[in-house]
Each structure stands twice: as structure tokens, then as C-alpha cells.
Amino acid sequence: MAGELRVEYHHHLEEIRAALSRMIVLVQEAIGGAEAAFLAGEDDAAQRVEATRDIIEEFHRTVESLVVEQLVRQQPVAGELRFLVAALRIVPELELTAALARDVARRGRMHIGNELPPRVRGLVAQLFDQARDMWRQVTDAFAEGNEQIADHLEQEDERIDDLYTGLIGELASGVLRAPVLIEMALVARFLERLGDHAVEVGYWIESFSSGQPRASRGG
Length: 219
Fold this sequence. Notes:
By secondary structure, the protein is an all-alpha fold.
């Protein structure tokens, strides 16, 4: 009986790991879809992002339930405990990131992208590219158990911060209509937050991969 419980336990651990991996990939897809919806005005892409966010929300509930069950029934220790705690902290970050992508995609349906001057469009495209690349690195780090991903993502996030500052500067130049300007200020903030969530997930990946307690972003 005890042996069967251990087999079931490790099966659930792998189920949690697989769900997290899939969620991270879905976040990447949501960011790509948001870019297509916002800059290219693709309504179908906006719908896909909305559906992806719903799928991630369902994964969140599944992972949370599985983790709590293992914590209560199995009383894991050491690395397995670190992994389960990290999973509980990672899933809301993934859901929040997907929600940000959805919010940007929704504004794509307003065809705001068509009113953006080349400089603003270019900065938005660079923000999307940087965020997507950071989440690609998160995907690889999770699969490989990268123990040094957080600091690297912090450096990448500084690039997003610089692009965000540049975009806000362009928006302040007064070339956009007031309603578009208001929406673009929100979009800029949403895009900047995509990097922040990637860094946060990176710290939790590093925590269970390295076997060390999670460090704060301040060091």
C-alpha cells in the first residue's frame, strides 16, 4: 500500500511539472497573440489570447489542487517540498501574465495600433520582442532546471524598463489623440509588467532547482 502511494505521489509530481511547463508555453503564445492583435489588428488573435487565458486559469486551479493534496497527504520534505511551494507561487504569476496579454489584445480590437506613429510602433514591437524572449528563457530554464536564471532575467528586465521609459517619453510628446494616449499609457504599463512576472517566476525556478531558499529581488 505504501509503495502504491509513493508511485501515485510521484505521478502527481510529474503531473504538476507537466502542467507548469504547458502553462509557461501558453504564456509565450498569449504574448505572441497579443502582439498580433495589437499591432496587426487581428481580431482572431485577440480571441485566441482570451481562450488561452481561460485555459491557464483552469490549469491554475488544477495545479493548486494537486499541490495542496500532496502537501496534506504526503508531507513532502527537502527538494520536493521546495518544488511544491514554488509551484504554488508560480501559477498565479503565469495567470497574471496571461491576463496582461489579454488586456493588451483587447485593445487591439480598438485598432489603436493603426494610429501609432512609426517610432511608437517600433518601441511597442521591441517591448513585445523582449518580453517574448524573456519568457522563452523561462521556458528553457524550467525544462533544464537552470540554477542561475534569475539574475540574467533581471538584466533582461532592465532592457524592458528602458524601452518602457522611451515609450512613455514618446507618448508625452503629444502626437496622439487623448483617448488613444490614455489607452497607450495602460498598454505600456502592461508590457512592462510582462518582464516583471518573468523575473518573479525565474526566482522560483532557481529556488527549487538550486535547493536554496528563494532570494528576494533586492538580492
